[in-house]
Each structure stands twice: as C-alpha cells, then as structure tokens.
Amino acid sequence: DPRLRALRASADADGDHRTASLAEAALGRLYSLLDDRTSADSWFDAAEARTEAHALVGTRGTVVYQRGLDAYGRGLRTDAAALWRRAVPYLERAGAVAELASVHSALGYVVPPAEARPLLERAVALAREARVLSVLGRSLHALSEGAFVEGRWAEALSLVDEALPALDAAGTPVDRARARISRARLLRFHGDREEALV
Q1: Which residues lie below 8 Å from residue 98, measured CB to CB, with a gap of 6+?
Q2: In angstroms, rounded to a whole number, what is the distance separating the alpha carbons of residues 88 and 41?
Q3: The whole model's pTM is what?
Q4: Which helix (H) or strand (E) holds 183?
Q5: For residue 138, with 0-12 CB atoms within 10 Å meaning exposed, 13-18 middle and 19 or more buried, which class applies?
Q6: Tell me: the pLDDT tens digits for 123-156?
Q7: Strand runs (DSSP E) across the chain, as ranges?
Q8: Torsion over CA of 94, 9, 3 and 18, rounded to 10 degrees?
Q9: Residue 84 near residue 107, CB atoms below 8 Å
Q10: Smallest Cα–Cα separation from 62: which of 29, 109, 111?
Q11: Taken in order 33, 37, 86, 90, is the CA torsion positive or negative?
C-alpha cells in the first residue's frame, strides 16, 4: 500500500495521470483483497474519474477491465461481465488490441454458452494480431471445451492441439495442465487410449 500510494503521488507530481489512475485501480484491487469494499470502490471510482477528467480513453478501459477482474475474483460473474462489456468501447476507441483480446476471452468464460463462441473467436483473432500467446491459448482451449460439449470432438481435438503450443510458450502451469487433460479426454473419446496416456 505505501508503495502504490508513493507511485500515485509521484505520478501526480509529474502530471502523469495515466500512471496515477492505474495506481488508484491497483489500490482498489488491494483493498478488495483486504475485504474493505468502501475503500476499494472509492479507489476504483477515483481512477475512473481521473481517466474521464483527462480524456484517457484507453486507460479508462483498462481501469474498468481491472474492476471486472476484481468482481470476478469475488465470484460476481454477472457484475464482471457487465464491467467487461463496458470496457470494450473504450479499448476499441484506443486501439488497445491486446487488452481487447483479454476482455473478449474473459467474457467468453462468464456468458452463457450460446454467446461464448463468437466472443472467444474474436479473442483468438485479436490475440493473434497482438501476439498475446497466453490469451490465444486460453481462448482456443475454451473453444475446444465448447466444441466437446456440443459433440464436435474432431474440432475440439484440433483446437486443443492448436492451443497447446501457445500455452507451452506463455500459459500458466494450470492452463497447460487443463489443456493436456482435455486433450487426453478427447483422445480417449477418439479411441486412442495409448496416446491419451502420454
């Protein structure tokens, strides 16, 4: 907390409102983790107000996206989806391709299945453009899971096979493990039990 406050103060002194607003959003997430909702909301509100006052369109999108991540972390999926949808136009206006990929991917995990596929496909396209391998891998894997549920097993296997190199390069260990479990399950469904064990 002292370091974030110091960063905010230093950015304020330099007139760097982008950094100051991001520090305020980080303070919002910190106080949320400390279960101090009043302080958390106050810091998030301050960050949004600053981005609006200084016409920092892309940064406002980032702040709203961070606020959505906070809501998601507290189990508020509907609130998270609403915040992420609100972030999209700001990020589009700013041409923030990498963050748009992240937002679309995140939305693909919280909306009903019928809405998820186009969002995840958009996330894949944006992640390819921005070369964000972690988002690319997660989005491909999510599409694979959707295809599996709908009985499109060959497509599901193709998608997870495409996801794995991206996740191996930039995914978390949990992301890589989940994708490999999905692949093994799909190989078992295809009757390739020996390959599934590898």
Answers
A1: 126, 127, 130, 132, 135
A2: 21
A3: 0.89
A4: helix 173-189
A5: buried
A6: 999 999 999 999 999 999 999 999 999 999 899 9
A7: none
A8: 0
A9: yes
A10: 29
A11: negative
